[in-house]
Amino acid sequence: MDTVLSGIRSTGHLHLGNYFGALRNFVKIQDTYNCFFFIADLHSLTTHPHPTDLHNGVHIILSEYLAAGLDPYKCALFVQSDIPEVCELFVLLNMLAYKGEMERTASFKDKVRQNPDNVNTGLLTYPVLMAADILIHRAKYVPVGKDQEQHLEIARLLARRFNNMYGVDVFPEPQAFNFGANLVKVPGLDGSGKMGKSEGNGIFLYEDDKSITKKVMRAVTDSGPTEPNSPKPEVIENLFTLMNLVSESDTLAFFDEKWNDCSIRYGDLKKQLATDICKTVAPIRERIDAISNDADYLRKVAALGRDKARESASATLKLAREAVGFKAF
Ligand code: ADP
Ligand code: TRP
After folding, report:
1. Cα 111 vs. chain centroid, distance in angstroms?
2. What pLDDT is attached to residue 147?
3. pTM (global) more than 0.90
4. Are residues 164 and 306 in the same domain?
5. Domain check: are 285 and 302 in the same one?
């Protein structure tokens, strides 16, 4: 079974974009691939979060991923900082990563621009740590968004360099995993393109019906169609895209027809959309509540994931240590 691995940054709550754009697909592939999913709390340290906030972030992500359907018995679900082998491989890979290459990474340049007072070397070597995350499990596939493609390229480069330098075949070159037709972009309801945390337009999985409904009813619309069968402007298309994800197909067809014959009432469309989003979110929210308050369960899950991940990581690290010439006396 091929290995798929993905790291999740430990900041904030999951929104519908994360759910339909990533997580729902992770849930689907748990049976067909050997999956490693982890919370990248070491990477989070680049921005110096307060220790309490760091821990709360990990707690939230772990609870919400479990609530949304990741099964700790099917995949390895773990916390990055629980796997010391990653840090050792990180050191080995750092010797093969050149300063100029790291400085040229787009994400590093962005961070320098955004935060000129915090250009720490953790930021510079962020892609090397990410390569260590991937290579330590000899992962074949990594689902990544556009912003992470360059990091994956660096992981391939370091795998290749390590293998060539030591004349071994320890690390396979990881490839981007493509969810194909399942890949969706979840729009925001404020007319600003995608739903996202930094966009400030998220509808969250932990939110209650009242708060979700309020957000949906406030969605940006226009003055309505004047010609039958006209193309939908972006803000309206966005409502239909969301409806396509959460509603029954005949509901979607009903409102499509209303759009096409110009009798659509946006208030009705939004009410229906709000109802269907709430229906999707409610069972997940209930599980989030239950799981996040179940310290015993979370402890068990984290330990199970840690043990699975350390078993795989230590096997790879052994090969890497032998390759570079570390030998016991
Ligand atoms: P955010 O910061 O908005 O929570 P991230 O950029 O951290 O989102 O992305 C985490 C994961 O969720 C990525 O795999 C990304 O592709 C997915 N994702 C985030 N927002 C959306 C969206 N609006 N539509 C589809 N996928 C999304
Ligand atoms: N850098 C990734 C992000 O910002 C998170 C991440 C860390 C990751 N290590 C990884 C993703 C390894 C894939 C594989 O989203």
Report:
1. 19
2. 85
3. yes
4. yes
5. no
